[in-house]
Amino acid sequence: MLKDLRETGDPSARACSQEQATPRHDTSGPPQSNQSALCKNDSASYPLGYSSQEASRLEQQAAFLNKTTEELLMCAGLRPGMRVLDIGCGMGDVSLLAAKIVGATGSVVGVDRDPEGLNRARTRAYDAQIANVEFRQAELPHIYGATQFDAIVGRLVLIYFPDAAAALRELLRLVVPGGVVAFHEPDLSRMGAVPPIPSVAESVARLNLVFERCGFNPRIGVSIGRVFNEAGLSPSLVGATRMEQGGGGFCPTWLATTIRSLAPTMIKVGVATEAEIEIDTLDQRIREEADAANALLLGPLMVGAWAIKPA
Predict the structure, then answer these.
(1) For all residues of the chain together, what is the average pLDDT?
(2) CA–CA gap between residue 289 and residue 245 (Å, rounded)
(3) Which of 53-57, 164-168, 221-225, 296-300 has the lowest mean pLDDT?
(4) I need a surface site. Which of 10, 24, 271, 272 has the fewest CB within 10 A?
(5) Residue 146's pLDDT is what?
(6) What b-and-e string marks burial along 58-68, b requiring 16 or more CB atoms within 10 Å of the CB?
(7) Would you call 151 exposed, middle or buried from its count of C-beta atoms within 10 A (0-12, 13-18, 19+)?
(8) Cis peptide bond upstream of 162, omega within 30
(9) Distance of CA 2 to CAs 46, 190, 272, Å?
């Protein structure tokens, strides 16, 4: 089955009513085994780059988001025995969550375009002794092969398709009729502080602007219901925002490290200069301003959408 995928080159409101859909990998040793073009207006772009710093940021971000993503997958109807495809798997966080849910009788394939991220994912699966997951390189959304899955899932991936509905329609051919489709996407404009503080307001404005100039939709989360509709699906939706009082938590780190990864692209597309970004002091400035104002820091609104593919 797996060989049919060929390489090409938070407080929340919960609504868990859904239909159900039904239908191994050897870990004898860790598998062994770039840069993206910045702001090309296509699905190959990843404006945060592929640096070691970005890899570390993704690991921290996953820890920040995994609880709400796991809840989404459970609401969507993932269960033991299912075959799952994780789109844009990166370093494998959502794949590993799904692998635990579907258990030894199920299987997960994670696909991504970045070979270094896939190597990290394979090593993490080996270290965690998770044997029912495989990671493969593919160009999204054009994954070729005859294999169909009981579910496709993804987190922070539709945001990188200029036409998310067209990408989702393309991906639906990989799902069996009656299969599960579930994505977890952000509205980056909802990040902020209450009361407002300068370092957060400026950083969030720049973050949203760089995504827009790269041809992506930083508010894909609040558009995801329409994206599903345009792909022929009727979704259920759930939203969650992580929040922290004052500057002592993870929100300042998340925002500052995200800006650090985006900084080269920000400079390239004219959002800000290196001197204006002041990246080396940003984390501390956010913390100091948040503490001084006793501000409530808000992470991005993460919107989960799930649906059943019509028969």
Answers:
(1) 86
(2) 12
(3) 53-57
(4) 24
(5) 65
(6) beebbebbeeb
(7) buried
(8) no
(9) 26, 39, 44
Q: Residue 277 and residue 266: Cα distance in Å, rounded?
A: 9
Give 9-59 pLDDT, tens digit per residue: 333 333 343 333 333 333 334 333 332 333 443 334 688 888 888 888 888
pLDDT of residue 25: 36
Length of the chain: 311
Predicted pLDDT of residue 53: 86
Q: What is the pLDDT of residues 202-251, one digit of tens each?
A: 999 999 999 999 999 999 999 999 999 999 999 999 999 999 999 999 99
Measured at the alpha carbon of residue 242, what is the angle toward residues 48 and 238, in degrees to the nearest 5?
Answer: 95
Distance CA 137, CA 139 (A): 7
**240 has which bridge partners?**
12, 302
The CA-to-CA distance between both ends of the chain, in Å, stands at 22
User: How far is the C-alpha of 181 from the C-alpha of 228, rounded, in Å?
Assistant: 9
In angstroms, the Cα distances linking 102 to 95, 96, 269 are 10, 10, 43
Residue in the structure block whose two tokens are 């840069």: 35
pTM reported for the whole predicted model = 0.84
One-letter amino acid at 40 equals K
290/287 Cα distance (integer angstroms): 5
Q: Over range 160-171, report the average pLDDT.
A: 94
Q: Using CB atoms within 10 A of its CB, is residue 294 exposed (0-12), middle (13-18) or buried (19+)?
A: exposed
The residues, any chain, with a CB within 8 Å of residue 57's CB and separated by 6 or more, are: 48, 257, 258, 260, 261
Contact at 8 Å (CB) between 132 and 104? yes
